[in-house]
Task: inverse folding
């Protein structure tokens, strides 16, 4: 079952604390149950990890913690690779982690200097030191630290040294395929939003601003809008037409989005929607690819 999301619903909840660095979080989290990762997409596998964090935290009277990185490490470390686009902006990822039930999010400013911290220093200084972690939850292939030197065996050695427990999460699977952010990105790149949605566990969306579209043939039309996505790293499906819902405030309007290869998005919806020619903080929710497919 897909989860319906609205950009305005996250603000009244305020269930998750967000820290901008380890120093902000120091001594503020009780019996921290921690995991680290990019969490791009906050897909079904990620939500299982958050669920496990919360389960362990409940058992030990603690709190769940995700340590994530901004910008995405690959963007900084491999600037010549222009093909990396992200499923979520930081705002979207934060909203999704909160809705998944996470209690604490630490957003680390990922710099070249930070990337050079050795694995043992990262654990000693930040995970065991700043957070005082009681449990570190790691996926089956977890690696961390400078050049990903911290493998499974090394992690267990550090856990024994600093008196915290390692909890391993097995591969999460759907239709006998391993779920990963990479597979979701590939599905979206080819316009297969239905497959991407099945992996995500919610319908793919983007948050942005809309205004009346003044393109050729639409000058007098009150039901066609241009949707603007400010983050150049946000992944957009390929050019073509998609069945969508446009969400703002308490409304969800059925419509169609037309994307071109220059990242322009034109949205066609019904009249009298209450949009008022332009509106900020709207959400496009992708339901179906409408492009004809050759047999």
Result:
């Amino acid at each position: 079952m897909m989860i319906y999301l609205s950009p305005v619903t996250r603000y009244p909840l305020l269930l998750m604390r967000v820290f901008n660095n380890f120093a902000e979080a120091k001594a503020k989290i009780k019996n921290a149950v921690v995991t680290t990762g990019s969490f791009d997409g906050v897909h079904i596998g990620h939500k299982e990890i958050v669920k496990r964090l919360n389960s362990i935290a409940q058992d030990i009277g603690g709190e769940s913690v995700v340590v994530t990185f901004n910008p995405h490490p690959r963007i900084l470390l491999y600037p010549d690779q222009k093909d990396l686009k992200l499923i979520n902006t930081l705002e979207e990822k934060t909203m999704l982690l909160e809705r998944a039930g996470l209690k604490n999010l630490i957003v680390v400013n990922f710099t070249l200097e930070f990337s050079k911290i050795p694995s043992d220093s990262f654990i000693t200084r930040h995970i065991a030191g700043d957070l005082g972690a009681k449990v570190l939850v790691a996926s089956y292939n977890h690696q961390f630290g400078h050049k990903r030197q911290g493998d499974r065996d090394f992690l267990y050695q550090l856990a024994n040294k600093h008196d915290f427990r390692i909890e391993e999460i097995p591969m999460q699977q759907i239709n006998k395929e391993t779920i990963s952010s990479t597979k979701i990105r590939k599905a979206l790149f080819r316009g297969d939003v239905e497959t991407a949605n099945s992996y995500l566990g919610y319908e793919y969306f983007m948050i942005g601003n809309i205004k009346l579209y003044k393109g050729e043939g639409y000058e007098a039309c009150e039901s066609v809008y241009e949707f603007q996505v400010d983050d150049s790293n946000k992944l957009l499906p390929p050019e073509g037409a998609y069945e969508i819902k446009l969400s703002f405030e308490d409304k969800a309007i059925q419509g169609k989005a037309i994307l071109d290869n220059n990242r322009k998005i034109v949205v066609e919806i019904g009249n009298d929607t209450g949009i008022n020619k332009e509106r900020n903080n709207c959400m496009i929710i992708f339901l179906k690819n409408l492009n004809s497919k050759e047999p």
